Amino acid sequence: MGPDISSKLVGRGQGLFAQAAQDEMALLMAQNFVFLEGKYNGSTITVLGRNPILATVRELPIVGGSGVFRFASGYVQARTYSFDLNTLDATVEYNVYVLHH
Predict the structure, then answer these.
(1) Are 101 and 71 in contact (CB under 8 A)?
(2) By the 8 A CB rule, do 78 and 94 touch?
(3) Where along the chain do its domains lie?
(4) Tens digit of each residue's pLDDT (9 = 90 or more) over 33-71
(5) What DSSP line would sit under 34-59, residue for residue?
(6) Which of 11, 19, 40, 68 has the lowest tally of Cβ within 10 angstroms?
(7) What is the pLDDT of residues 78-99, one digit of tens each?
(8) How far is CA 51 from the centre of its chain?
């Protein structure tokens, strides 16, 4: 529900990323948002795109989904909430704008 580690878990982000640029910090991301609660339980939203991680707001396309989000399209806006230089752990907020049938 929120960025705190003790907040209620409503889903998980699962996927992979790879370095996508030679002269800046940008990742190619293939990510699924897997919902675990409520009417979206078991459904997914799939994101695939370039993420220039040092930009304040990054936009990535939604390329599909499953369950409730079958035939999904749209985009996500990612913003880094916090980043730990020691562990390289990041907390990222994703605002999701999705159309589905």
Answers:
(1) yes
(2) yes
(3) 11-99
(4) 999 999 999 999 999 999 999 999 999 999 999 999 999
(5) EE-SGGGTT-EEEEEEEE-TTSSSEE
(6) 19
(7) 999 998 999 988 889 999 999 9
(8) 10
Which of 52, 43, 39, 58 is CA-nearest to residue 12? 43
CB atoms within 10 A of CB 10: 13
Helices (H) and strands (E) in the chain, counts: 0, 6
The two tokens of residue 6 are 């003790």
* Region of residue 74 (phi > 0: left; psi between -120 and 50: alpha; otherwise: beta): left
Q: Which residue has the tokens 């396309």?
A: 61
Residue 44 contacts residue 72 (beta carbons within 8 Å): no
